[in-house]
Every structure is written in structure tokens, then in C-alpha cells.
Amino acid sequence: MRRTVRGIPAVDGIPAPHPARRSRAALGTLTAAGTLLALLLPTGQAGAAPQPAHRTATAQTTPGAFWTADRMRAAAPLDLATPTKRSAPAAVPRGAPLKVAPTLFRLPRATSLLPGSLPQAGGPWTGGGAVVKTTGRVFFTYQGRNASCSGDAVTSGNKSTVITAGHCVKLQGAWHTNWAFVPGYHDGQAPYGKWPAAKTLATPQWTASEDINYDVGAAVVAPLDGKKLTDAVGGQGLSFNSGYNKAMYAFGFPAAAPYDGSKLIYCSGNTIKDPLFSNDHGLSCNMTGGSSGGPWFTSFDEKTGTGLQSSVNSFGYQFLPNTMFGPYFGEDAKNLYNEAQKS
Predict the structure, then answer these.
(1) What is the model's pLDDT at position 258?
(2) Is the pLDDT assigned to residue 102 strictly greater than 60?
(3) CB 166 within 8 A of CB 148
(4) I need a surface site. Which of 66, 142, 277, 282 has the fewest CB within 10 A?
(5) Could you report the per-residue pLDDT of 114-173, keeping only the tens digit for each?
(6) Averaged pLDDT score across all residues of the chain
């Protein structure tokens, strides 16, 4: 996500803005100059959804050798390039609603003190449950620097699928390297292991033109110590073509002030459809850099920490602070998920 974020870890001495917020910064500059421009890249045509594009990676057998605790703590949120202008976004292709149930495996018991019902504009998740194991930080190398996002383990046929943002797997024509998923991350610790990607994928619209409406990515991770991902941590459910204006919970690992990337943070509330320049969901949320790719859930149960993933943290606007936007999970997101889980 690229917002201009407060207090993001510096790269070569220069603060690295949050993906969602830099998009907002670019747009804010343009609107301040009196020119109202959309921050979307060219959108694909509606109709039959094209197939996802992917990069096959050489899985790291010992990801811990690279992603040490210090490297994970120091990884900076990923920057997005300044989006190109667009007058109006095309509609996201939709189909029949589809729901995939969560995989409940060794479900952690929720604490007696739950975070409380929505709305919540941002704060540490203290409710326990499955979400503390399925949500994690994503680490990778991009243009020679170590960077981070967030991601989520989901129910899948291969038991090895992670859903994240498109810009967390590919940006400006380059697929990220050294890609690893760390579920349950906490302050440099990887309690459930560091899972290297065997393949990373993105929607075709993101792959071709980095269209913010389709900022959805996925990874198929290699087995670790003889186990597959959801056998170790469980998997959240998914929901596609579920409509707008929903009660949702968003999770991630923001690394900019007032956060430091060490804890799982959440927001909750009723979403809106972006009234400006995208087809995305919008949610009141103060998460900052590093939360990109973190899951948004409908039908979320605070007692069990399970829900149906319906979007990811993606971007924001400079002139609309403390608001996060996430892509609509339509046919292309569904195709991406199906392609990943078959791999």
C-alpha cells in the first residue's frame, strides 16, 4: 500500500513511504494544483476474466539463513510508483457469490478479554483465535533492498496458499525475490516458521499494468520441516463477489508510527465503496506502512478469530487520512485463488 506514512523505517537514510500512502501523496499534489486526476492505472475490459500471471521461484530450503531477526525488524515497507492518471475505472468483473469455509486446525483459544465490537480505527489485536496464526508478515527483496508487507494463509487445495497484495509480489515489472511468509510474526520472532515461496502470482491486470483495482497477489509456499502451511497454522475462509457496504475486519503488521511492525494490528467497521477513483472497499483505519496485503474479513467471529477473506490492505488517499482501501474480490481474484491452490 502506498500512503505517505509517518515514521517508516529509513532506507539508505531516506524514509520509505507506505505504498498506499504514496499513491495518496501523488494525488494530493495534483489536486492541490487544481487538477483532479485519478490515481488508477489502465483497467482491463470487463467480460471473460483473463488468467493470472505468475513467477516460479526457486524455493529457499533455509529461509532463516537470510531472514534473520534483525533483517526482519529492519525490512522497510514497499514503495509504489506514482500511478498514471485515468478518468474513470472500468467495472470489476463479477460473477456468482462464492464462499470457502475456514480450515480450523489446532485453533488457538481466544482470550477472555476480546478487543470489542466494531468500529475500531486501529489497535493491537488481543483476542487470540485463529487469526493470530494465519496472519503474518511477508518479507522479500525488491530493487536491492529488504522490504515487508502482510499476508494471510487461506483454505486451499494444496494447503500452501497465501493471499496478499499484488504489489507485495511484483512491482514495476520486477517479481520480488527472497520471498517468505512468517505467520504469527512477533518482534523478530517466527513462532510457526519462515515459509519460502515456490511460486508467486498476481491478477493479470496487476501484472500487466499495476491497476490498483486488481491489487491482489498470492504465493504458493514450499513445505517446511515436512509440513504444509495450513496443516501447521490453519487457513482462513474466502468470499468472492460478496458485494459492498459490509461489516469487515482488517488485519496487518504496520511498521510506521504509531506502530513498529512488531504486533498484529486490526481495524473494524462498516465499509463503503470508494466514491472517488477506484472500485475498492473503503474502511476507517489508521494502519500504516507494512500492512499492505493484510486480510479483510467478512463474517468475522471475534471468539474464534475466523472469517471469510474478502479483500486486502491496498492503498489510501493523501487528502483522506486514516482511511484504507482494498480491492473488490471479483472474478479475477477468484481466478487467482483457484490458480494458486491448484499449483
Answers:
(1) 83
(2) yes
(3) no
(4) 66
(5) 455 556 788 999 989 999 999 999 999 998 999 999 999 999 999 999 999 999 999 988
(6) 79
102 with 234: CB under 8 angstroms?
Answer: yes
The winner for highest mean pLDDT among 9-13, 94-98, 310-314 is: 310-314
Q: Quote the Cα angle for 265-266-268, to 5°.
A: 165
Write the DSSP symbol of residue 113: S
HSE toward the beta carbon, residue 172, CA cutoff 13 A: 9
Q: Is the pLDDT of residue 89 over 90?
A: no
**CB atoms near residue 327 (< 10 Å):** 30
* CA contacts within 13 A on the Cβ side of 159: 14
Whats the size of the chain, residue-wise? 343
Rounded Cα distance between 290 and 296, Å, is 15
Helix (H) or strand (E) holding 100: strand 98-100
CA 98 to chain CA mean position, Å: 20
Give the pLDDT of residue 45: 35
Distance CA 151, CA 100 (A): 17
Q: In what order do the strands lie in the sheet with 247-252?
A: 98-100, 237-240, 306-312, 295-301, 247-252, 265-270, 120-124
266, 120 contact by CB (below 8 A):
yes
Q: Which of 88-92, 169-173, 313-317, 319-323 has the lowest mean pLDDT?
A: 88-92
Q: What angle do CA 321, 324, 330 make, to 5 degrees?
A: 150
CB 318 within 8 A of CB 18: no
Report d(CA 126, CA 220) in Å as an integer. 29
Q: b or e along 56-77 (b: 16 or more beta carbons within 10 Å of the residue's beta carbon)? A: ebebbeebeebbeeeebebbbb
